[in-house]
Amino acid sequence: MSKAGPVVLVTGGSRGIGAAIAAAAARRGYRVAVNYAANETAAKAVVDAIEADGGEAMAVAGDVAREADVVAMFAAIDERFGRLDALVNNAGVVDRKARLDQMSAERLERMMAVNVVGTMLCAREAVRRMSTKHGGKGGAIVNLGSVAARLGSPGEYVDYAAAKAAVETFTTGLAREVAEEGIRVNAVSPGLVATEIHASGGQPDRIERLRGMIPMKREGRPEEIANAVLWLLSEEASYTTGAILTVSGGR
């Protein structure tokens, strides 16, 4: 079992914003559990990069929408590190651009299962470990929302927008629920960010198409979202809980 340094779990940590958060956490002294659903190679690449830079990390498989996977993932972290100090609920999915009247029940169920239920299941396991009510020493949770929760994403992803709105409401409620138990719960609400998620949703040109709508006239970088997440995890944010921090270039 490892002995030094706080431990953070980053779900969906194998690419994009999650990978940037994992790397930033390691640079700040965290030991990092990098969760992935399917791409083991990508997750191991993130772990290798952290270790090459002198940090400590592990890759841990699990579909956050499956309770058994979530329980097993946290058990693996317990075994390796023996503690958990922070959770970043970054894992999420999007789908093809569509109107609601084109969406199947299967798509809607998967959207909610990963983005909402997965966030809540991981937070549940974190609370069971961090809460002073359960013998823990406190900790911090950061959930990834989206400006889509406010904008609604009409004609594109109203299901994704609704899921992220649920995540942000959950953040507010959980923050108040566990505030006396040493756990801070906040969210980061990113705007348009340069990651692979746009291509995976069938819109590889989405950034170019929407860039002009952003007051700063540029997309965000994953590292900029990671910096906001790490601030919320840090002692600099010790009196901040229930906050939704928008990082969107002004949109």
Automatic annotation (TrEMBL):
Keywords: Oxidoreductase. Signal peptide: none annotated. Coiled coil: none annotated. Pfam families: adh_short_C2. GO terms for molecular function: oxidoreductase activity. It comes from the Bacteria. InterPro entries: KR_dom (IPR057326), NAD(P)-bd_dom_sf (IPR036291), Sc_DH/Rdtase_CS (IPR020904), SDR_fam (IPR002347). Residues 6-213 form the Ketoreductase domain. Belongs to the short-chain dehydrogenases/reductases (SDR) family. This is SDR family oxidoreductase. It comes from Nitratireductor mangrovi.
